[in-house]
Amino acid sequence: MNTMISTGKAAELLGLRPRTIQAWLKSGKLKGIKLGSVWRIQVEEVNRLLSAGGSPSPKLNRIPEPLLRLKLEDGRAVSFVESTDGFILVAVDGKPRATIQPEELPALIRSLIQNSGSNRATAELATGV
Prior knowledge:
5 helices; five-stranded antiparallel sheet; 129 residues; Arc Repressor Mutant, subunit A; three-stranded antiparallel sheet; single chain; 2 domains
């Protein structure tokens, strides 16, 4: 019998946000079944991703050149990478953590800086931006 889990549980197991799981389901990077407005994912699919390093695409295991890098006062390095589907992939210390809409970027940057323990961060724009 195939055990099905929610996007929330899949996100927890993969160390990602539910919104990232939903974006991957919609784009086809992750296989699942949509029942009405609710997605369900087979446990075997999550296990496949975990055994492959937690990412449905080998390209996501190595972060491409980011549009922007932030070095926060608490030591974390946050990278923002434009994806081919119009989303922005957010990686913390080199690990993919979330997928956001471009319009969410300013609020996320403000929140990251404020929650880092100070109101400062060092930013580096990618070349050619």
